[in-house]
Amino acid sequence: MSPWSLLATTADTEHGVHSGITVLFAALLIALIACLALEEKLHAKKSVIAGCFAIVCLLLGAFFQILPFENVVVGSHLIEETDELHQPASGVDQDSDSNAETASADGEVEENTTDDDTATTNAEDAELHAGGHEISMPVYIPAIDWGVIAIILGSSLFVDITSKSGLFTWIAIRVTKATAGDPLWLLAAYGLMTVVFSAVLNNVTAMIIVGSLTAVSLDKLKRSNLLLGFLIIEGLLTNIGGLLTLISSVPNIIVGTAADISFTDFFRYAAPYVVVATIVTIWLGAWMFGVRRLKSADEREEAANLVSAFDENDGIESPGFFWFGAAMLVLFIVTIATTSYLPYISDLKMGFVALAFAGVMLIRFRSSPDQFYKALDWDLLGFFMALFVVINVMEHAGVLDAIGLALAHVIDLGDLWGTGLILIASAAFSSVTDNIPLAAMLAKILSSLGTPSESALWWSVVFGANLGGNLTPIGSASTLVAVTIIHKHRLPMTFARFVKIALPFAITQIAIAVAYVLIWLR
Question: How far apart are CA 316 and CA 170, in angstroms?
Fold first, then answer.
């Protein structure tokens, strides 16, 4: 059966949407993916591309009447889970009118019907809510996952403000001094620092900090011939470090939230792979780029003298703010890690924690917060909001049902083939376009299939979406930054050359990920 036939069949049988409508919206989704892959050639930002598609999707959704424009119920609470909506829970007031309205599981208002067959068919595994009140809300507002937006906004602000304390530069220079200028130890230290920074910062910030310091350090150590290898390895390691925690990368946030994986569980499952992949990547990089230890005593002494001239305190303007930033960073990581266990805060979720810490740090710059607002990646935030809207419309158009059916066939191949194929396919897709739409779409589909939190399928998406960025220079923003720094220092690097160099690393990392997911997480 062709993909279009599959879409048509699924639309008619699963979602009640005309097959032609589903095919039309599927074509729009493919067009969005293609435009995102050609972002540079189109000279358009992600937010503009996704925003235009969101507008078109909403207009077409309204025209074809597939979107829910009813009022929504807010503030309701769960009474009990029931197999049939027409069987009321005890203690809940009932209207004599057979068409009384009840809140559905997704918060939208549905009408009860006296047709028992229809009620039984449509209400299977439904949840009965009580209380709350109806409000009129634009259909695109609840389509956006505001928890994800809050985490990205708050974390970005917090990291940007904390970096002004000089903390991250101080850490980087201290690490450099600890290596005594030996190239191999320097590569290992910078590689480890890249992974750690990528885990607690965003990948782009980590690459900018470590990449800039690498260029300065190698120049002072008279080892500029190693700069290309260092920058490529660091660029690849940003995506490895992006796997370490729930907030290390956007796909982690999306998939982890959908799968209800806690911060500590995410770290516990991802850390062993990150350790192994980091060691293998550094070892392979040292071998490929000829990074060796200094052999003679004279070479080691000269390198140590050059490194000792570095001053880690140069970037610290205020010692008080430096130590305050260090304390807040530790507290931020601990609070994020224990959010699900803390009273009151567990109800407010990680988005509140990120925004609260950003607000506290802004007190230091209370008279000039606009400098940080300007530095925010508004394109990324706008892209996310538009993307969530597009995906929501795709769900109502039956597109996600069709993809989910295809995904179910892959899963039916068995744990071994299904899990492995999803990881590899996710990596391949992420290498040519943004991994965020992929993660959002697959997370939505796996949720609709009722995939349990402990399933290895979630991890296939996480590993594939992150590691695919190492296959091409456009696969992730951090590898693109690495290539930009390479060009800045007038080193030769083309798209094809990057793929040729990065391919052995990416294949090795993906192979280890497949083995790890199948053996340890399945």
Answer: 8
Q: Please list, in sequence order, all residues whose beta carbon lies within 8 angstroms of the beta carbon of residue 460, skipping any fewer than 6 positions away.
A: 419, 420, 422, 423, 426, 517
DSSP 450: T
Query: How would you write 336-348 as a 3-class SS string?
Result: HHCHHHCCCHHHH
Whole-model pTM: value is 0.65
Contacts of residue 385, Cβ cutoff 8 Å, sequence gap at least 6: 144, 149
Query: Cα-Cα-Cα-Cα dihedral of 522, 478, 169, 361, to 10°?
Result: -80
Q: How confident is the model at residue 415 (pLDDT cuts 50, 70, 90)?
A: low
- The set of residues, in sequence order, having a beta carbon less than 8 Å from that of 420 and lying 6+ positions away, is 460, 514, 517, 518
Assess contact for 517 and 463: CB atoms under 8 A: yes
- Predicted confidence at residue 5, as pLDDT, reads 53
Q: Map tokens 């910078």 to a residue.
A: 190
Taking the domains of the chain in order of start, what are their residue ranges? 72-135, 146-375
Residue 46 CB neighbours (<10 A): 21
- Which residue, chain included where needed, has tokens 């199948």? 518
Rounded Cα distance between 309 and 222, Å, is 14
- Write phi, then psi, for 165 (nearest 5 degrees): -75, -15
Half-sphere exposure of 475 (CA within 13 A, CB side): 27
Contacts of 90 (CB under 8 A, 6+ apart): none
pLDDT tens-place string over residues 171-216: 777 878 888 888 899 899 999 989 988 887 667 767 877 887 788 7
CA distance 196 to 421: 29
What angle do the packed helices 19-37 and 378-396 form, to 10 degrees?
160
Helix (H), strand (E) at residue 153? helix 146-163
DSSP tag of 261:
-
Place of tokens 């900018």: 208
Q: DSSP letters along 356-406, please? A: HHHHHHHGGGTT-THHHHHHS-HHHHHHHHHHHHHHHHHHHTTHHHHHHHH
- pLDDT tens sequence across 18-52: 888 989 998 998 888 788 777 778 888 888 998 99
